[in-house]
Amino acid sequence: MPVLRSIDEVLTPVLAQVRPVAPALVLTRDAVGLVLAEALRAPASLPPRALALRDGLAVSSLELVGASAHSPVMLVGPPRAVRRGEPMPVGCDAIVDPASALARGAFTEHCESAAPGAWVRQEGDDLSAGTCIARAGEPLSAEAMLAALAAGIDRVAVRQPTARLLLGDKALEAWLAARLARLGFRLGEGDADLAIAAASGPPRLALSPGEEGWIELAGRAVRIEAAARFDALLAVHLALVLPAAAALTGRVLREEALPLTRKISSAVGSSDLVLLKRAGAGWEPIAVGEVTLAGLMTADAFALLQPGSEGLPPGALLAATALDHPLSAPA
Q: What is the tens place of the pLDDT at every residue in 161-173?
């Protein structure tokens, strides 16, 4: 029987030499889903001054306290009309309907009071100067992109490693390419930061499923091997690819510890992959050491048991990583 190496034994020396890829500037509108190398902060308040949110008359709410049709307020001067999106006149903090005011010679008769800030977007309501729009190490969301563009940030620094897939199975490659894209990678040919190939040798890794998996450095690139089966590839992806992706993009695995709803059993000597789904305030095990497509589509998170573990009892806390959002910025 071949000697199987533990995940930590093969992964730790590789990660010790992997550094985040160099940042690159890209257009903000093209950066959604890419991992930010630097935090984005609003350079100034947005809007830079109070703006009207509707067509109407700009007024001072304090001057119109108690105004009504039965008790109008007379103010000196003509009404100050504004259009939606225009800056508010100095001293005005609300907008009223033009029909609520009548010109009376040198005066204006107001028949309606106004709440402070009515129909007005105040300076900094959208973003105050210095507001963190998005953190370094997090993918840029569509909403953060909109905020950045509104703040005048047209380019952002991102870390986007390249990946090359050599599995020889189009369905598996399409699935893995989609997973990698969500982690901020782009596919490329030739030199790549991460290469994932089909394993051709005997079992080498104490991982169930995924015994044929392996990780090593090939020059400056991380090379990972996995058997061309969806269950083995999933296990290798979660055990080896995710930590490598975190290192290349300057992130860490995101974990959440919840109690198990029932016990799980594990074989000593191997790291068993555990698929889990959220059940109230706990984790419900779906599969341990074996994976089906049905189980994968049901699962919310995963965990890897230590090789020396025989399992865990009901109620034991288990730190698990979400399948959809497995990485986060360092604390």
A: 999 999 999 999 9
- Percent of the chain scored above 90 by pLDDT? 90
**Cα(259)–Cα(285) distance, integer angstroms:** 11
Is residue 6 within 8 A of residue 12, CB to CB? The reply is: no
At 312, list the tokens: 């865990």
The CATH number of 256-313, from 3.40.50.300, 1.10.260.40, 2.40.340.10, 2.60.130.10, is 2.40.340.10
Do 28 and 143 touch, CB atoms closer than 8 A? no
Q: What is the pLDDT of residues 112-143, one digit of tens each?
A: 999 999 999 999 999 999 999 999 999 999 99
Give the residue-averaged pLDDT of 198-219: 94
Which fold would CATH assign to domain 7-21+161-252? Chitobiase; domain 2 (3.30.379)
Prediction pTM value:
0.84
Measure the CA dihedral 219/220/226/231, to 10°: 180
Measure the CA angle with vertex 223, ends 220 and 228; round to 5°. 165
Q: Phi and psi dihedrals of 183, rounded to 5?
A: -90, 0
